[in-house]
From TrEMBL:
The keyword Oxidoreductase applies. It comes from Carassius auratus. The lineage of its organism: Eukaryota, Metazoa, Chordata, Craniata, Vertebrata. Transmembrane segments: none annotated. SUPFAM superfamilies: NAD(P)-binding Rossmann-fold domains (SSF51735). This is Retinol dehydrogenase 11. GO terms for molecular function: oxidoreductase activity.
Length: 308
């Protein structure tokens, strides 16, 4: 009898966890032949899975990251899984504004198209500083992608209709921006939440500024995903989090589905500047929809990255 209860309880737990991890998959079959896709952080995790799925649709896929060895290994894997040889790597360090400018200059010289820009790379909740003295989370997750997107806008406009997809996180709801301390770097989780909120404001303002110019923008929460973001932490922390991720987090392939959905589906066009999760638009908290804050952040970001 005890054995029966144990088996029944285990099966029940398995089914509950399976239900909690359920996710929609992108069912749009649109091809991307002749299109060029740029994915930051495309050498691992959600970025790599997104690269595979878009390469399978015939896109020319460029993964942008800082680790050449990992990038070349990822390129070989993406080519093998997608049977698409039009996959390549370009080096960029999003924690270094000079690197971003050099990358953008090279990209504009070499690439004639940019149909889809996926700002996927990101730093988890770590207390560190970029080469330009920005907090690592805010500097990489927001300012790095803000500068990159702005520098590549000429090519995006020339390739219209084109799209910009910014990966964010539902944890944005736990913090608000403090314009007196945008470089906040005190509690790791809070710095991460603020950077993800900045991604949402950036998407909103980018969509507003490019309205009618052939470029649309979307913010995507991919879900809580079993990726290698824990590599930045201690061994003990990684062991503990691995257990939690196995139980509650979804696979990178499942996490990439909403990114792919926003990259290919025509259904998203009526939600320009919107926030998506699980392959559908989702409602943001009221403070995250504040157009005034979004505009103020844009202007502040321009000054910080020296675009203004």
């Amino acid at each position: 009898m005890y054995l029966f209860y144990i088996i029944f309880s285990a099966l029940l737990c398995f089914l509950i966890l399976k239900w909690l991890k359920r996710r929609r998959y992108c069912m749009d079959v649109k091809r991307l032949d002749g299109k060029t896709v740029l994915i930051t952080g495309g050498n691992t995790g959600i970025g790599k899975e997104t690269a595979v799925l878009l390469a399978l649709r015939g896109a020319r896929v460029i993964i942008a990251c800082r680790d050449e060895e990992k990038a070349r290994k990822a390129v070989r894997e993406i080519k093998a899984r997608s049977h698409n040889m039009n996959v390549l790597y370009m080096e960029v360090d999003l924690a270094n504004m000079r690197s971003i400018r050099e990358f953008s200059k090279t990209f504009l010289q070499k690439e004639k198209r940019l149909d889809i820009l996926i700002n996927n790379a990101g730093m988890p909740s770590v207390l560190d500083w970029t080469d330009d003295d920005f907090s690592m989370c805010f500097g990489v997750n927001h300012l790095g992608h803000f500068l990159l997107t702005n520098l590549l806008l000429p090519r995006l406009k020339e390739s219209s209709p084109s799209r910009v997809i910014n990966l964010t996180c539902s944890s944005y709801k736990y913090q608000k921006l403090d314009f007196q301390d945008l470089n906040y770097n005190l509690f790791p989780f809070f710095t991460y939440c603020r950077s993800k909120l900045a991604n949402i404001y950036f998407t909103h303002e980018l969509a507003r500024m490019l309205e009618g110019k052939g470029v649309t923008a979307y913010a995507v929460h991919p879900g809580y995903v079993q990726s290698n973001w824990i590599c930045h932490f201690s061994v003990l922390f990684r062991i503990l989090v691995q257990v939690v991720m196995f139980m509650f987090f979804v696979s990178c392939e499942a996490g990439a589905q909403t990114v792919v959905y926003c990259a290919v589906s025509d259904e998203v066009l009526e939600h320009n500047g919107g926030y998506f999760t699980d392959c559908q638009p989702a409602q943001l908290r009221a403070f995250a929809r504040d157009s005034g804050v979004a505009k103020k952040l844009w202007e502040a970001s321009e000054r910080l990255v020296k675009l203004a």
